[in-house]
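A quick aside before the break. I want you to see a complete sequence-to-structure record at least once, exactly as it would be stored in a machine-readable document. Don't worry about memorizing anything.
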Amino acid sequence: MEQAIQPCSLLDYLAMVPDPRRRQGRIYPLVGILAMLILAALNGQKSLRGMWIWAQKHWELFRKEMALGFWAVGRLPCLTEIWNILTRLNTKALEEAITAWAKGWGCEEAISVDGKVLRGSKRKGLAALQVITAASQAMHTVLRQQGVEEGDMVAAAIELLKAIPLEGKVVSLDAGLLQRKVVEVVVEKRGPTLGH
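That is the input. The structure line, written in tokens, reads:
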């Protein structure tokens, strides 16, 4: 019986994310779009528009990279097209793919869990959006994030920690999250903790 090949590159893992488009609407490969956005983010772009502008400047390089699948198309997808794909994308599947890739590198020995308020998200009559993030200290990247509902950061942290493997990992928690309920989840999943 033939053994399944284990994916090893980030592109292999991104290829596992389901494409939300119908087959006849797939001019640009999803894996290429996701890789392009990740590269733009790694180069300091923080907004979708910034990522798109950065990709425009580097489009010829993206077209030449066969693994991204852009070689058959003549132009960069328009910003609206990328936005439409991202709004329908299964973000949980994307997070799981990136987490699995990071885990394969063995770079998660130390994970920092912290609460963030998203700058610029406050609207008239509404509170600013909040998220809890789990970041790999070795890779300097966010492994997973969880939205905060009704300002309950502790509940969001618990939800986040339940979703990621913690065995053998050192978990550092923001002082505001260093509460018995949160620590109990880490201990149950066999991860030591450090307050910071």
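Two observations worth writing down. DSSP finds eight helices and five strands in the chain. Residues 106-195 form a domain with the Nucleotidyltransferase; domain 5 fold (CATH 3.30.420.10). We'll return to this after the break.
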